Amino acid sequence: MPRWLDDRESRVWRAYLALHTELHAVLERELAADSGLSLADYALLVPLSESPGGVVRARDLAVSVGWERSRLSHHLTRMQGRGLVVRETCPEDARGSMVRITPEGMATITAAAPSHVATVRRTFIDPLTEADLTALDDIYSRLRAALADEPEL
């Protein structure tokens, strides 16, 4: 027999879902308007831009953003077509591939980051108090730890 959510639990859960949807929409809309990037593009360009030489093994990139290999492959194909990344063979393993940010990709993420961070700050960080941030840090850490214990399908 399931343990149904009580009124407060249901309200908190639904508020989280609504916040996630609304925040994602604002971030997606403003990032696209400011830079032409999607949140998915941004999610991939950040670790590439921060890695030594701007290159990451494809499987490691997929893990870092929590994507399946097929989703990563399809999205990288679109980004490669726009000149943001290139794929290369892996020198240590011919079956593996490397993803490298291009100079255009680096220029794009560099130009997009200040506005994106300002949007994140305005819509998520600034409305919160220091106590709120401390509480959310603890809450998110506990929730992520609980998820880490979930079996993979």
UniProtKB/TrEMBL annotation:
SUPFAM superfamilies per record: Winged helix' DNA-binding domain
Cross-referenced PROSITE patterns: HTH_MARR_2 (PS50995)
InterPro entries the record matches: HTH_MarR-typ (IPR000835), MarR/SlyA-like (IPR039422), WH-like_DNA-bd_sf (IPR036388), WH_DNA-bd_sf (IPR036390)
GO biological process: response to stress
HTH marR-type domain span: 9-145
GO molecular function, a single term: DNA-binding transcription factor activity
Short name of one Pfam family: MarR_2
PANTHER family recorded: MARR FAMILY REGULATORY PROTEIN, TRANSCRIPTIONAL REGULATOR, MARR FAMILY
The protein's name: MarR family transcriptional regulator
Organism the protein comes from: Actinokineospora globicatena
